[in-house]
Structures are given as C-alpha cells and as structure tokens.
Amino acid sequence: MSKESSNSPERIPTHIAIIMDGNGRWALSRGLPRLAGHRAGTENLRRVIEACVEFDVKYLTLYAFSTENWGRPLEEVRGLMRILEDVIDRELQELHKQGVQLRHIGRLDRLKPSLHQKVLEAIEYTKDNDRLILCVAFNYGGRDEIVCAIQHMIENGVKPDEVSDELVSQYLFTAGVPDPDLIIRTSGELRGSNFLIWQGAYSEWYFTPTFWPDFGKEELARALEEYKHRQRRFGHVPESV
Ligand code: IPE
Ligand code: IPE
Ligand code: MG
Q1: What band does 240 get if pLDDT is binned at 50, 70 and 90?
Q2: Catalytic annotation on 139?
Q3: I need a surface site. Which of 163, 191, 199, 205 has the fewest CB within 10 A?
C-alpha cells in the first residue's frame, strides 16, 4: 500500500495481522491439556473474523502454525493439523456467507495430501468473495518465504539489477496483499517469531498480555483505538516540525 494512504490517524488499518499466541498457557492455567487451548483458540476465530468484517478491515492475516512449530511434540502437531481440518469443515459455509475470501501463505506440501487438497478447495470455493481477505499463515515462516522467493527469482532468470523492493514483494507468498498496517501479538510475548519479517518493516505493533482464546471483539476495538493515535512516519519528518 502507498505510505501516504495509511498514515492518517482516522483510518482503521486496511490490513491487520495477528500472532495468535497463548493457547497452551490458557489451557494450562485451567488444568487442561494444551490441545484444549488450541480448540478454544479456534472458537475465538469466529468472533475476531466477524469483528473485522464489522469494522471494515479489508485484510486479516492469522499466524496459525509456524515452520518452527514442527518441533513440538508429535501429538500436538497432529492435533493442530486435525484442528485446521475441522475448522475448514465447520466454518467454511459461514465464512463464505460473510463474504470472506480465504487465502493461504506458507507451504502446503508438508501437509498430508487430503488436508492439502481441502485447503485448496476452500480457497477455490471462496475466491470470488471480497468483503474480507483472510490469509491463513500455516506452515509459514518469514525466512522460508524469502528463501522461496530467491529460489523462484533465480529459476526465472531475474538479473541482479532487476531485483527491487517491488519485485521481491511480488515473489513472496503475500504477493498482491498490502503490507500489514498493524500487527497484534497476544499472550504477552514481545517478539516477532518469524512472522511477516519483510512485510512488517513499517507495521505498527500492538502487544497484549491476553491469551488468544480470550482476545475478543472488545480487545480488538482497543487495539484499533490505540492504532488511531499512532503517528506513522516511515522515516520521514512530519510536516508540522
Ligand atoms: C499459539 O499458542 C498457537 C500456536 C503456536 C500453534 P501456543 O501453543 O504457542 O501457546 P503458548 O505460547 O504455549 O501458551
Ligand atoms: C508463534 O508462536 C507462532 C504462532 C502463533 C503460530 P510461538 O508460540 O510458536 O512462538 P515462540 O516460540 O513463543 O517464539
Ligand atoms: Mg506460543
């Protein structure tokens, strides 16, 4: 997106990206297994997606599974795959009704073939919707994305002097999606964890100690309120100075 179009404090962010963190601690604090936290986290998806539609956010990117999350115990990884499958089965019709277009960023090739296929079908099914573009980052890593972009540029014979900011952006999984204006991380962790490392170069960050399953519409509204008061400078000096 052009820098000028997003620095007005009145604007709500065109693109919000969320690191949905804290499911495990949410569960442990209730004496439940971690997977119960992941299930609770998916219940919260509906609330936040509906709120984004209501607030007229155009793009929402959700970090659901990182390239590093394969390092978790096998049972948890399997549970997270099952949850993705269940969410598509349960929520696709409702998302479609709300005008949500599903996209995926990351690599699908490591998923079992039936799940891979299910994700592709959900993308195809919702491709003409335009109320909200929902990008699901699943098996996504910012570094992996850049490596993948470099590989494709080399394969396509791109010359060194043809490489530019814009060209790199076009080779990323997020090609065509404006950079996130606001990145939210729940659960109190203050780090990026390999999320949108290129696209987030000038994003505003909002951190909250709330665990993801408890991050609802009200807290999203608070984040938007805080965003309104941010002054985005993009390295420039404001005109009034
Ligand atoms: C975020 O919750 C969901 C995923 C990473 C899949 P976590 O599972 O990281 O929860 P915590 O951080 O351990 O509490
Ligand atoms: C980031 O959370 C990944 C997702 C939310 C999907 P993690 O819980 O995996 O990140 P770290 O380990 O705290 O950095
Ligand atoms: Mg975590």
Answers
A1: low
A2: no
A3: 191
For the CA of 64, the nearest ligand:
2
- Check: CB of residue 140 under 8 Å from CB of residue 106: yes
Tally of residues, the chain = 241
Closest ligand to Cα 25: 1
185 phi and psi, to 5 degrees? -125, 125
pTM of the model: 0.95
Give the residue carrying structure tokens 């997020």.
174
> CA–CA distance from 67 to each of 64, 71, 79, 111, 144 (Å)?
10, 9, 16, 12, 8
Residue ranges per domain, the chain? 15-141+179-228
Cα(10) to centroid(ligand 3), Å: 32
Q: Which option is the CATH number for 15-141+179-228: 3.30.450.40, 3.90.550.10, 3.40.1180.10, 3.40.50.300?
A: 3.40.1180.10
- For atom 2 of ligand 2, which residue has the closest CA? 21
On the question of pLDDT at 2 being above 50, the answer is no
